[in-house]
């Protein structure tokens, strides 16, 4: 059988598993369950209770911290034993999928970037490309880029491609007006509650000789 847990599931949360059925009665009925293999880092434990129908019902409980980025799936072999001597056994495989939660922010491959551009570069000229990754899955791991206009480049001299992270000239530059431009670049994921991080880009404008 297959079940799912979000990776932020608290300890002790349980999912009901298929109970073993034994036609024998009393002590020769199902007496206990064990996880035989697949329980990496003891992430899970079993709990059981017997109902009036005599069946020993089974639950799988969280026993530790789940992290999809570390272990996305578990394949648990669970056995049921009766009370005979020696006991008779039966087993089943439980496939556990850990569902992604947006718990990782994007990470730039550098905290600060440096680039140069001639002051006579035309609008649309590519300057530099930043890059960030996000360990989450799906939209939680998709990164989009922007320039923080509140903290940098308020005149909009530069722009950035939201998908590729490529920075390019957006307006005419002038070395005599400003030689070095400091940009605050944002990488944000597309989760429902997006996480973001920033990096700094220093762009040095190279002087272009002007004839009189």
Automatic annotation (TrEMBL):
<feature type="domain" description="Cadherin">
    <location>
        <begin position="109"/>
        <end position="207"/>
    </location>
</feature>
<dbReference type="InterPro" id="IPR050174">
    <property type="entry name" value="Protocadherin/Cadherin-CA"/>
</dbReference>
<dbReference type="GO" id="GO:0005886">
    <property type="term" value="C:plasma membrane"/>
</dbReference>
<keyword id="KW-1133">Transmembrane helix</keyword>
<feature type="domain" description="Cadherin">
    <location>
        <begin position="3"/>
        <end position="108"/>
    </location>
</feature>
<dbReference type="GO" id="GO:0005509">
    <property type="term" value="F:calcium ion binding"/>
</dbReference>
<keyword id="KW-0732">Signal</keyword>
<dbReference type="InterPro" id="IPR015919">
    <property type="entry name" value="Cadherin-like_sf"/>
</dbReference>
<dbReference type="InterPro" id="IPR002126">
    <property type="entry name" value="Cadherin-like_dom"/>
</dbReference>
<keyword id="KW-0325">Glycoprotein</keyword>
<dbReference type="Pfam" id="PF00028">
    <property type="entry name" value="Cadherin"/>
</dbReference>
<dbReference type="InterPro" id="IPR020894">
    <property type="entry name" value="Cadherin_CS"/>
</dbReference>
<protein>
    <submittedName>
        <fullName>Protein dachsous-like</fullName>
    </submittedName>
</protein>
<keyword id="KW-0677">Repeat</keyword>
<keyword id="KW-0812">Transmembrane</keyword>
<keyword id="KW-0472">Membrane</keyword>
<keyword id="KW-1003">Cell membrane</keyword>
<keyword id="KW-0106">Calcium</keyword>
<dbReference type="GO" id="GO:0007156">
    <property type="term" value="P:homophilic cell adhesion via plasma membrane adhesion molecules"/>
</dbReference>
